[in-house]
Automatic annotation (TrEMBL):
<dbReference type="InterPro" id="IPR001387">
    <property type="entry name" value="Cro/C1-type_HTH"/>
</dbReference>
<feature type="domain" description="HTH cro/C1-type">
    <location>
        <begin position="11"/>
        <end position="64"/>
    </location>
</feature>
<protein>
    <submittedName>
        <fullName>Transcriptional regulator with XRE-family HTH domain</fullName>
    </submittedName>
</protein>
<dbReference type="InterPro" id="IPR010982">
    <property type="entry name" value="Lambda_DNA-bd_dom_sf"/>
</dbReference>
<dbReference type="Pfam" id="PF13443">
    <property type="entry name" value="HTH_26"/>
</dbReference>
Length: 247
């Protein structure tokens, strides 16, 4: 297989991992969507064009070559042990967050209380855990998909429920960048299914926005967290008024 074909296939995987479409890439390169599709379908492009695409995806040629040699897709989930390692060391979890969001080392050191040795040690740990690949210049390449999901009832989800949920809701949601909607009502089973699909669509839109803004500097971005959830539920304060069910 020609190296150019391997690299183009690797670019396709990078696009999928970042939740980007050919249209998104065309907009970044100021080309037509048809031109992008043609380049990828013919699996041939100039080195200059390859470098432009790498810049648009914030991926180095060395990283792309290494990824194409492995040919493995990005991880959609972490293992139980990987999540537990992150839960057990908050600084390591922060390092993963910063790496996934493509923070440069100089920005990390400017905004967080790490020195170079401490930051390097965290990246080495993530590399040994198989979550990132440590590249020259302390650049971490995530081995996860940008939109990877935590394990259902895994270490991170349990940690969030027990330790972080109260912190998330502790302060009022009254800022310009805040939003809190408390909704409740009765729906049919079909209505509940439709609502879940809409929540999944919103999650995908969030992933797409993350990918779109990934090339901006750290100073131009704001950390944002969403909690999307639904379940059949009645407030605990209503429980004393519930009639006992027979059987």
């Amino acid at each position: 297989m020609a190296l150019s074909i391997e690299l183009v296939d690797s670019l396709k995987r990078c696009l999928r991992a970042q939740g980007l479409t050919y249209r998104d890439l065309a907009a970044r390169l100021k080309l037509s969507e048809a031109a992008i599709k043609r380049m990828f379908s013919q699996r041939a492009m100039s080195l200059q064009r390859l470098e432009q695409i790498c810049d648009a995806l914030d991926v180095g040629l060395a990283e792309l070559s290494a990824e194409s040699a492995r040919g493995r897709p990005a991880m959609a989930n972490l293992s139980e042990s990987q999540e537990q390692a992150l839960v057990s060391e908050p600084a390591l979890l922060l390092a993963l967050f910063l790496t996934i969001n493509r923070w440069r080392q100089e920005d990390v050191l400017a905004q967080f209380d790490f020195n170079i040795a401490q930051w390097t040690a965290l990246l080495v740990k993530l590399d040994r855990l198989g979550i990132i690949e440590l590249m020259p210049g302390n650049r971490g390449r995530p081995l996860t998909a940008r939109n990877f999901r935590w394990r259902a009832n895994g270490p991170m989800e349990r940690y969030f429920r027990l330790n972080l949920l109260g912190d998330f809701f502790a302060d009022p949601f009254d800022g310009e960048q805040d939003a809190l909607l408390l909704l409740s009502g009765s729906l049919s089973i079909e209505g509940v299914k439709q609502l879940r699909l809409r929540l999944e669509e919103l999650a995908r839109e969030f992933d797409a926005l993350l990918a779109r803004d990934a090339t901006l500097s750290a100073q131009e971005r704001v950390g944002v967290s969403l909690v999307l959830a639904q379940k059949p539920w009645l407030l605990q304060l209503f429980q004393p008024y519930r009639r006992a069910q027979n059987g």
